[in-house]
């Protein structure tokens, strides 16, 4: 699905990117345009807005999806100070049962959160895999990835499926997910995404530790997804 040679470029190796940003559409503090403008002023060359889709916290509802997508699509029709804009969403899989409404839109990135944070994680993980199987062209990832409830006897199964279905593993310092013991198993056979999880302008581009995580493990930066 992904290519390490996209349009003659080896992924976002030399570009400054932030693929996890929140706005007033969910629990962020600024409008999408304000956040993108601030990112441009910080020299961030690519951003992906990924507001929450959930039923229990400040988030998009099914009724908001069209307005959200249309608004971002209009903004990205022209780059702000050279910053390229992608449209994403962060799905709370602990509260969203039907993923069908998402299929109405051409997302650049869909991040799923809380997949492994509950006793029923196997059911939720299978739901994610089924969605990916039905929508192979979507970039689908695990937001601030933690394998919280995955036991030692099941981790091989989980990682093999992530690799098989090309599920993206997000590196996100906001949740300290690098402390997860199963991260020791990660290598250059997986695809990664990096994001600040910014809710405020001040946090935009806070991805240095994520990049260092890959470098310390000799994982090529070409394994960062090219949107």
Architecture overview:
The chain has 227 residues and is of the alpha/beta class. It has a single domain (17-223), classed as TIM Barrel (Alpha-Beta Barrel). It is built from 5 helices and 7 strands, in the order E-H-E-H-E-E-H-E-H-E-E-H. A 7-stranded parallel sheet has the order 1-2-3-4-5-6-7. Helix 1 links the parallel strand 1 (17-21) and strand 2 (46-53). The radius of gyration is 16 Å and the shape is globular. Residues 1-13 have low confidence and may be disordered.
The CATH architecture classification is Alpha-Beta Barrel
Q: Give the terminus-to-terminus CA distance.
A: 11 Å
Compute the number of helices.
5
The number of E-state strands comes to 7
Give the overall silhouette. Answer: globular
Classify the beta-strand content into a percent band.
15-25%
Q: Key features?
A:
seven-stranded parallel β-sheet; single chain; alpha/beta; TIM Barrel; 7 strands; 227 residues; 24% helix
Question: What is the topology?
Answer:
Elements: E1 17-21, H1 32-41, E2 46-53, H2 65-75, E3 84-92, E4 109-113, H3 121-134, E5 140-142, H4 155-164, E6 168-171, E7 191-194, H5 208-216
Parallel strand pairs: 1-2, 2-3, 3-4, 4-5, 5-6, 6-7
Question: What's the short version?
Answer:
With 227 residues, this protein is α/β, with parallel strands linked by helices. The protein is built from 5 helices and 7 strands. A 7-stranded parallel sheet has the order 1-2-3-4-5-6-7.
